[in-house]
Amino acid sequence: MENIFTDEYFMKKALQEAEMAFDKGEIPVGAIIVVNNTIIARSHNLTEMLHDVTAHAEMQSITAAANFLGGKYLKDCTLYVTLEPCQMCAGALYWSQITKIVFGARDEQRGFMVMGTKLHPKTAVVSGVMANEAADLMKRFFISRRK
Ligand SMILES: [Zn+2]
Predict the structure, then answer these.
(1) pLDDT tens digits for range 27-53
(2) Does 44 carry a binding-site annotation?
(3) Per-residue model confidence as pLDDT tens digits over 49-92
(4) What pTM value is reported for the model?
(5) Separation of 37 CA from ligand 1 center, angstroms?
(6) CA angle 34, 71, 116 (to 5 degrees)
(7) Catalytic residues
(8) Which residues does UniProt mark as catalytic (predicted)?
(9) pLDDT surpassing 80 at residue 147
(10) Domains in the chain, please, with CATH?
């Protein structure tokens, strides 16, 4: 049987979260955390609603996953996030020692790569999964804000 639990499969779930953010007028970024092919955290950006610059999708998912696991380290966990994490989220992910990060679109301005933020040496990174879908959602959002 073919394995349905591909990176694309889980990134679609993260994109659904990003759509929810979009519908609330939040910058559309969604994240989920998966362990053993089970989603243990799902979240989307809520910085406007919570008036909190730290309410990025990744930050909320890190907290939710640690609560679920009953431990602070996200061992054997994979984060799927529609946009490249910023330096704050990369820093939090560093402390979580998460096993793998899969992200969609690059953030050329404020992503952790251009900022030179380091992830934990144990963390594997995959980029560009459904990047066009994530980038299109961002574009649609900023066009709708200008109207
Ligand atoms: Zn962030």
Answers:
(1) 999 999 999 999 999 999 999 999 999
(2) no
(3) 999 999 999 999 999 999 999 999 999 999 999 999 999 999 99
(4) 0.96
(5) 24
(6) 65
(7) 58
(8) 58 (proton donor)
(9) no
(10) 7-138 (3.40.140.10)
**Tokens standing for 97?**
């020692």
Q: Specify the residue for token string 């609330």.
A: 24
User: What per-residue confidence (pLDDT) applies to 98?
Assistant: 98
Whether 79 contacts 66, CB under 8 Å = no
Is-contact 43 60, C-beta < 8 A? yes
Ligand 1 center from residue 125 Cα (angstroms): 16
Whether 89 has a binding-site annotation, put simply, is yes
- Torsion-angle region of residue 36: left (phi > 0), alpha (psi -120 to 50) or beta? left
What is the per-residue pLDDT across 98-107, written as a single tens digit (0 to 9) for each?
999 999 999 9
